[in-house]
């Protein structure tokens, strides 16, 4: 790489929030290790902040701070580290830096998901590098794996827990039985969720990361509208409990799979069997499982967010730049898989369905809904129910052999006939399921079966 | 790298067993992917086998096979792939290849653990590369991670499930309650264990791999005698059951930790809390957890052995060689941590102890042993017991606040006083444990407590 002064690299940091502070501290604390491994002394020459007056807990030379991006771009600069987030001014400053031949390291998933292809093209044109390990899964080197390791393998599928906020909330809902809204407040207090949590809890953040991973794994440019997206806000604590009784954990999973129609991309809560490598990834941890044709299944896990894990990814990108490792394989985002919006998958699969109702209506609703499902040639693998604090019950089913669309229709029909059924949840189930023994019986015998369910409640 | 013929790389394979066959097939099947990603056509020019007459299931040109290493070394050769295992002739052939400037890729953990430093020095002297990703944890790119990724981070500790045979046996013992010897026979029938399983089940194989990982993580040359080593042959099925009741899984763990006296290295069965990232790695899967100062904890898991996972690691080393990525960071095995043999750790820790006895002797043995332990200022965190098929009981304890040596002494003493106690097991316990409430009481009150244990049995 081109760095003017031998043995010394001049770095500017855009943003001095949690990650920016972590990057600055890591450069100071691990200066000696970086020098020994790369031969370079790292010198921070400027830090772009939003507010010069803000009090900093960091021990930092205030003369480095500026509010003006021009100061950064016109100053002494070899590598720009962008950890401020958001599309602007990040996009403009990064583009300008790359155009002037400076290398850029970014943690900005939204920017890379939306404008990564253009920025990488600018970098290539001007002989600069654009590295973005920190944009996905914090300190887990999954970008490096896809770019530099799995080259002889062909990737068959990716699934990952890509958002630490959601994973923390789901873990706590399962552990404590408390509801989403309450845990979200805890998460905010702990710094695990932002004041406006929409991007995290509605799955946008995970969708950005999935787009970046899919870009690399399939050499494909992804339109974010091709990603089916559903957040975690509709889940009830009872769903976590019911899933556990069925033998599953509920996780927000970003998933890319090859199918006949192209790539199937989604971010949505899924039931994972407890033996699934992602089922035991808890709290703010992230994990990514890659299926590849030769190696089989590889899983990487670690802290997906926070000051130091993300700073680690940034600093490792910096050392890769300094040692020349980043020169290896530029991402090729040329293949366009599918243009336009996401189209629903109509393949038969396995589904978790739950709904609330009054106990006295449970039997009637159950029989009517099951009749509808069994008419669709669905089978039932298992059922569980819990009584809620207000006296209502939440019933749940694992059904298989039927497409999502049919299940969704049956739920709409359920709303109409059993007026007390509310807040239905429909989630995909990973892995094979089999008909439960009792459900091989004809529908007419179900009435008696349902009595036993009511006793359990 | 130096490859004579542009656009084509000539490869010889030493060994055509499970892994060798996988390498050959992968080169054929993924030829197009490799060509696209590296620009090279891979040409297999020779395969060294032990027995030319052996029947091969593989679709292979028999003219490629030879029993004479000289044929390989004097033939057309850019890269030598060694997947035959054992020290000789592998060591000699690899040394000769490196001396003639040929690059070598090896899956040989014993060779790398015992002679890696010399071979890497020969490679360096002759401008050749020696790559060995396949020597540890099959297709999991942990070598690549330590060599090429964690450069700004300082590694603080490594622990891993490094032997698939042992992990399969322990998983099956826990799942079925069947004993070691029986499961070992299953493992042989399934091809998961060799006819002579000593290297696997006694922990030698895992110790080789631990030495290689430690070399890289700490830039240290490791003498295998510095690794405390204990296999899985003494474990009873009841121990897996008891550990489960205490809230733990038992796994054979290779572990390297920095301590005041230098590195503490061991391969031994350990109790891991069920929330530990390695506790849920089952069957023939391997996993490695790396603790580093900036990133925190990273875990990599995948298939640790078998035809294709190991072939994947070999082929990815080959593509790294062809794209120049292997030039990045050569391992530096210069620091010598400790010369001489392993010295036992005397630090207080947490321990699992179990022993068999006749039910009528249980109370007396328990009181005497506990008195000895409590005199040593140990505390008891929990106790569990199971009745065995022959009417004996197996009692187990989690004790803390005491060094391993003291527990070991108490067990020897136990043999003398309670003559019926046999086959005691002592294992380290990961994570913090706390005194169980009832054990804060003075020793004199324990006699009555033990009554309740006998009722439970």
UniProtKB/TrEMBL annotation, chains A, B:
<dbReference type="InterPro" id="IPR005106">
    <property type="entry name" value="Asp/hSer_DH_NAD-bd"/>
</dbReference>
<dbReference type="Pfam" id="PF03447">
    <property type="entry name" value="NAD_binding_3"/>
</dbReference>
<keyword id="KW-0486">Methionine biosynthesis</keyword>
<dbReference type="GO" id="GO:0046872">
    <property type="term" value="F:metal ion binding"/>
</dbReference>
<dbReference type="GO" id="GO:0050661">
    <property type="term" value="F:NADP binding"/>
</dbReference>
<dbReference type="InterPro" id="IPR036291">
    <property type="entry name" value="NAD(P)-bd_dom_sf"/>
</dbReference>
<keyword id="KW-0915">Sodium</keyword>
<keyword id="KW-0791">Threonine biosynthesis</keyword>
<comment type="pathway">
    <text>Amino-acid biosynthesis; L-methionine biosynthesis via de novo pathway; L-homoserine from L-aspartate: step 3/3.</text>
</comment>
<dbReference type="GO" id="GO:0009088">
    <property type="term" value="P:threonine biosynthetic process"/>
</dbReference>
<comment type="pathway">
    <text>Amino-acid biosynthesis; L-threonine biosynthesis; L-threonine from L-aspartate: step 3/5.</text>
</comment>
<dbReference type="GO" id="GO:0009086">
    <property type="term" value="P:methionine biosynthetic process"/>
</dbReference>
<keyword id="KW-0521">NADP</keyword>
<dbReference type="Pfam" id="PF00742">
    <property type="entry name" value="Homoserine_dh"/>
</dbReference>
<dbReference type="InterPro" id="IPR001342">
    <property type="entry name" value="HDH_cat"/>
</dbReference>
<feature type="domain" description="Homoserine dehydrogenase catalytic">
    <location>
        <begin position="141"/>
        <end position="318"/>
    </location>
</feature>
<protein>
    <recommendedName>
        <fullName>Homoserine dehydrogenase</fullName>
        <ecNumber>1.1.1.3</ecNumber>
    </recommendedName>
</protein>
<keyword id="KW-0479">Metal-binding</keyword>
<dbReference type="GO" id="GO:0004412">
    <property type="term" value="F:homoserine dehydrogenase activity"/>
</dbReference>
<keyword id="KW-0520">NAD</keyword>
<keyword id="KW-0560">Oxidoreductase</keyword>
<feature type="domain" description="Aspartate/homoserine dehydrogenase NAD-binding">
    <location>
        <begin position="15"/>
        <end position="133"/>
    </location>
</feature>
<comment type="similarity">
    <text>Belongs to the homoserine dehydrogenase family.</text>
</comment>
<dbReference type="InterPro" id="IPR019811">
    <property type="entry name" value="HDH_CS"/>
</dbReference>
<keyword id="KW-0028">Amino-acid biosynthesis</keyword>
């Amino acid at each position: 790489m081109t760095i003017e002064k031998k043995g010394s690299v001049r770095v500017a940091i855009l943003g001095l929030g949690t990650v920016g502070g972590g990057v600055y501290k890591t450069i100071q604390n691990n200066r000696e290790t970086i020098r020994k491994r790369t031969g370079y002394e790292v010198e921070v020459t400027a830090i772009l902040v939003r507010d010069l007056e803000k009090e900093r807990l960091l021990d930092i030379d205030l003369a480095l701070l500026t509010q003006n991006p021009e100061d950064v771009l016109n100053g002494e600069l070899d590598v720009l580290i962008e950890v401020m987030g958001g599309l602007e001014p990040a996009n403009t400053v990064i583009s300008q830096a790359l155009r002037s031949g400076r290398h850029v390291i970014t943690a900005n998933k939204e920017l890379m998901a939306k404008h990564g292809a253009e920025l990488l093209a600018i970098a290539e044109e001007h002989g600069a590098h654009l590295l973005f390990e920190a944009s996905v899964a914090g300190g887990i080197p999954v970008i490096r794996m896809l770019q530099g390791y799995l080259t002889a393998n062909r990737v068959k599928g990716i699934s990952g827990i890509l958002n630490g906020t959601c994973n923390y909330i789901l873990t706590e809902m399962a552990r404590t039985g408390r509801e989403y809204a309450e845990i979200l407040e805890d998460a905010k207090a702990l710094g695990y969720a932002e004041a406006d949590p929409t991007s995290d809890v509605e799955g946008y953040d995970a969708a950005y990361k999935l787009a970046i991973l899919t870009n690399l794994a399939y050499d494909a440019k992804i339109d974010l509208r091709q990603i089916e997206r559903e957040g975690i806000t509709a889940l009830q604590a009872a769903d976590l409990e019911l899933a556990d009784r069925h033998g599953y954990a509920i996780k927000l999973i970003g998933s890319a799979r090859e199918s006949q129609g192209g790539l199937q991309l989604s971010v949505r809560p899924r039931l994972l069997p407890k033996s699934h490598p992602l089922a035991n990834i808890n709290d703010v941890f992230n994990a990514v499982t890659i299926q590849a044709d030769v190696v089989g299944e590889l899983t990487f896990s670690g802290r997906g967010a926070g000051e130091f894990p993300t700073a680690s990814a940034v600093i490792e990108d910096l050392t890769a730049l300094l040692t020349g490792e980043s020169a290896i394989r530029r991402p090729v985002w040329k293949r366009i898989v599918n243009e336009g919006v996401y189209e629903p998958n109509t393949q038969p699969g396995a589904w978790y369905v739950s709904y609330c109702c009054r106990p006295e209506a449970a039997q009637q609703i159950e029989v009517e809904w099951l009749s509808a499902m069994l008419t669709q040639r669905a089978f039932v693998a298992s059922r569980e129910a819990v009584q809620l604090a207000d006296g209502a019950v939440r019933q749940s089913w694992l059904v298989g052999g039927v497409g999502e669309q049919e299940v969704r229709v049956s739920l709409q029909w359920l709303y109409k006939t059993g007026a007390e059924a509310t807040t239905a949840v429909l989630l995909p189930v990973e892995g094979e399921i089999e008909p439960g023994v009792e459900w091989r019986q004809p529908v007419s015998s179900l009435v008696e079966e349902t009595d036993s369910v009511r006793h359990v409640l």
